[in-house]
């Protein structure tokens, strides 16, 4: 049996403990061998809870562990650039939580550091590794709903009472566009296979939450007069639907990004009526880990390139600029 791809986790964030670590542990090709925190007791406790062999009280010690092949970074957004570059310089492949950076320039700098070190840098948009998105793209490409006329999507939840939340720190890259608006943006680019030409966003910047955008609504304009309309928020009821409108039909995904165990099915409406499309069970976090490991172990290009992450940051940055300046931004 081939040895597994060995991961170190740089931080004890909730997304790491709740989803990414279990996903890697349940995958075919990966194992989690170490975790680090600036609080050694927290690292040790997390390691014990999740049956991780080694715990470190310094991030540097994790990077110096020669038995680790790759690092997963779930740190707050403003730390992505520093620790991605440091991981690259330590010779580790990197899976960095979304959004990759705070700006397009930061993302490009991170990509350059990875290329210089000859390591892989991937952005952790786990949803797109789920097999249902291959199925949706196949239906679109086969003309099941005709030509795409528009995409609508949203990702909202309410954590407004948690004033200690890192998402509410402006200087840490807080706000709903960075945190959840990035998903509809990424999905539209994925499904349309192109970059938007312009963006317009209106946002509610909350004085109670360090002035970050707690709700935003946006329009992304693509070639052929196709658009994405989206909203995102951290002070609204939970939802994350995706709707793809075509000339001959409609695809509806009730839980497009964060899905319950049995929530991967979606619906397609055509001239023959509306039907539910059953999707095989899959753990998107496990699929993400396995596909990354397979690419790296077999020296094959990533399914989703680092360049894609840079382009996504360009759009996110433009959305924030539009919201602050209250004007349309041409890309």
From TrEMBL:
GO terms for molecular function: nucleotide binding; oxidoreductase activity. Keywords: Oxidoreductase. Pfam families: GFO_IDH_MocA (PF01408), GFO_IDH_MocA_C3 (PF22725). Coiled coil: none annotated. It comes from the Bacteria. Residues 5-123 form the Gfo/Idh/MocA-like oxidoreductase N-terminal domain. InterPro entries: Gfo/Idh/MocA-like_OxRdtase_N, Gfo/Idh/MocA_domain, GFO_IDH_MocA-like_dom, NAD(P)-bd_dom_sf. Residues 135-252 form the GFO/IDH/MocA-like oxidoreductase domain. The keyword Oxidoreductase applies. Belongs to the Gfo/Idh/MocA family. This is Oxidoreductase. It comes from Paenibacillus solani.
């Amino acid at each position: 049996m081939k040895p597994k791809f060995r991961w170190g986790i740089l931080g004890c964030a909730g997304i790491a403990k709740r989803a990414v670590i279990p996903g890697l542990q349940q995958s075919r090709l990966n194992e989690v061998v170490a975790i680090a925190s600036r609080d050694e007791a927290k690292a040790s406790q997390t390691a014990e809870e999740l049956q991780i062999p080694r715990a470190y009280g310094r991030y540097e010690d994790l990077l110096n562990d020669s038995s680790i092949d790759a690092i997963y970074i779930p740190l707050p957004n403003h730390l992505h650039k520093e620790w991605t570059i440091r991981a690259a310089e330590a010779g580790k492949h990197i899976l960095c939580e979304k959004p990759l950076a705070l700006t397009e320039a930061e993302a490009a700098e991170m990509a350059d550091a990875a290329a210089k070190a000859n390591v892989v840098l991937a952005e952790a948009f786990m949803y797109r590794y789920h097999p249902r998105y291959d199925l949706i793209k196949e239906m679109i490409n086969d003309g099941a709903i005709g030509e795409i006329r528009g995409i609508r999507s949203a990702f909202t939840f309410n954590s407004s009472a948690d004033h200690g939340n890192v998402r509410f720190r402006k200087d840490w890259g807080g706000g709903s566009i960075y945190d959840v608006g990035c998903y509809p943006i990424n999905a539209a680019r994925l499904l349309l296979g192109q970059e938007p030409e312009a963006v317009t966003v209106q946002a509610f910047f909350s004085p109670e939450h360090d002035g970050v955008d707690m709700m935003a609504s946006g329009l992304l304009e693509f070639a052929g007069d196709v658009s994405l309309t989206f909203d995102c928020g951290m002070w609204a009821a939970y939802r994350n639907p995706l709707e793809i409108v075509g000339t001959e039909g409609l695809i509806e995904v009730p839980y497009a990004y964060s899905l319950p165990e049995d929530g991967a099915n979606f619906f397609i409406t055509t001239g023959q009526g509306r039907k539910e499309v059953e999707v095989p069970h899959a753990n998107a976090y496990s699929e993400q880990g396995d596909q990354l490991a397979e690419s790296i172990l077999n020296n094959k290009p990533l399914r989703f390139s680092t360049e894609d992450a840079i382009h996504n940051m360009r759009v996110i940055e433009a959305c924030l600029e539009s919201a602050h300046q209250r004007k349309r931004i041409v890309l």
